[in-house]
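Reading a protein record of the kind used here takes only a little practice. An example makes this concrete, so a full record is given next.
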Amino acid sequence: MPFSEFKVAEKYQYLNGFNSYHESEALEGALPVGQNSPQKPPYGLYAEKLSGTAFTAPRAENQQSWLYRILPASAHKPFEPRESATYNTNPESKPHEKIYQIPNQLRWDPFDMDETVDWVHSLHLVAGAGDPTMKSGLGILIFAAGKDMDAREAFYSADGDFLIVPQHGVLDIQTELGRLLVRPNEICVIPRGIRYRVTLPEGPVRGYILELYQGHFQLPDLGPIGSNCLANVRDFQAPTAHFEEDTSNKYTLLSKFAGHLFAAEQNHTPFDVVAWHGNYYPYKYDLGRFNTIGSISYDHPDPSIFTVLTAQSDHPGTAVADFVIFPPRWLVAEATFRPPWYHRNTMSEFMGLIGGQYDAKTGGGFQPAGASLHNVMSAHGPDATTHEKASEADLKPVKVGEGSMAFMFESCYMVGVTEWGLKTCRKVQDDYNAESWEGLKPKFQRPEGK
């Protein structure tokens, strides 16, 4: 079926369409008609503009929303540093730990669950490149949480857009613009600056995050493919307006700013947006709806055919970040080595596994909740076991990846690994090369007389 069968049923309503201009009101008549900032908005609400791009960005790139809320977002006390000696998710200028740029192929065992922390304190930077203060680059994080955020807390990142890939558990995300339920085999994107709170209705959660410091995610151009396939526009879902009314209790607003944590107090709920309209909002997508493309003659196409979302650099065709998946699919190519070929890439490739077994790594070392990193020009490809099987396989049509979903964060940047990712988490597999490639045997046969 062209959608995922989730164990946890959906409970919210959504607006459909990627980068569509939406409007939503939780109270009929709350949206002004014909203008954005009337002298007196309906019901005594405050009008507030949320800009995801510069005012003067080209119209096709401009992202903004107008919010109509009970009190403006600016109504809070000054921010103060929180946990400055321990909380740091900045890939550069790290005073408390080092970033390692190394050419070794890396693979991690499944990352541990942590039932003692909430969403904010579960975030660990594994790798990254660039600088959020310059809006350049990206960060790759692991989350593993076991507690709801406090009922009177909200969090936002000023550093970039969060692309969240759950691997275990369910995220119930209350955002300023409405609610999202995000389950394994779904992803969600929470753009820079949007405030939200995460609760865990099914217990502990774990997964992966790509934080994009530079630009915003877009759908890839389809070129000769035509107007449909891959991730289709209609399958992305944005929340509908939902608000709370509380102006008498104390709330804490947490901000991730230049990788550090800050907190401010305010005497009203952050979730008081009664209506909104625009094209800057959180959204989610069911990976089961991805329409795969592949060869129906010979050879294995580049993995770019599996790109769900992309964020381009200033050089077209070269991505700051691509989000690529490897879903269940049919392989029918004739006279072809069907798994991904051995290669070296000018792009860095960070892979994770949501569930099942990745068809290019059948040796058992690449596991759900684990990860791998093949940095710029670091050679990699199928492990010895996979190569042997694929070289001798009967090339009948076969479906691979049943019950599996692997993904890749790909970037033009040379990605550095943090102290936490390389040492503290204690998940790096020392035998990755030995298990994957040192067992490959030479098969070269020199022709007689040559």
Q: What stands out?
A: The two ends are 55 Å apart (CA to CA).
